[in-house]
TrEMBL record:
Biological processes per GO annotation: phosphoenolpyruvate-dependent sugar phosphotransferase system
Species name: Candidatus Enterococcus wittei
Lineage, highest ranks first: Bacteria, Bacillati, Bacillota, Bacilli, Lactobacillales
Protein name per its UniProtKB record: PTS sorbitol transporter subunit IIA
SUPFAM superfamilies reported in the protein's UniProt record: PTSIIA/GutA-like
InterPro entries the record matches: PTS_IIA_glucitol/sorbitol-sp, PTS_IIA_glucitol/sorbitol_sf
Top-rank taxon, per record: Bacteria
Pfam families for the chain: PTSIIA_gutA (PF03829)
GO CC terms, sorted: cytoplasm
GO MF entry, a single one: kinase activity
Listed Gene3D superfamilies: Phosphotransferase system, glucitol/sorbitol-specific IIA component (2.40.33.40)
């Protein structure tokens, strides 16, 4: 398991039209922080998330349905990924995306604990 804590929630991090969250670590620029969730990853482990693994926000657990080819590397290097809480067609999936179900945004705040849990 990899643990993180939400340190900051950007003023424009949530959108009624887009069911997604953009994660970054503390290295995010000021412009990115407005649209992002800033996480502090407390585990020093490379990410290797796969379909079937889960991400929890406090007690809210989400199953990974799809993971883009760049997501694990970007999470490891700059704590960045786009979490998508909705279905997308194959051709519209983004390389840095992690697609999760259920299809609803989690309730989060500063201090929310994120747990990246690998099945294997």
């Amino acid at each position: 398991m990899i643990h993180a804590i939400i340190k900051e929630v950007g003023t424009a991090a949530f959108s009624e039209k887009e069911p997604l969250l953009i994660l970054f670590d503390q290295s995010a620029t000021a412009a990115l922080r407005n649209y992002s969730i800033i996480q502090e990853i407390t585990s020093e482990v490379a990410f290797s998330l796969q379909i079937g693994d889960s991400i929890s926000f406090d007690e809210q657990e989400y199953l990974i349905e799809h993971i883009g080819p760049l997501a694990n590397d970007n999470l490891t290097t700059v704590g960045h990924s786009t979490l998508i809480f909705g279905q997308q067609s194959e051709e519209n999936k983004i390389a840095n995306g992690i697609y999760l179900s259920p299809y609803q945004l989690p309730k989060i705040k500063v201090g929310t604990k994120i747990v990246y849990k690998q099945v294997n």
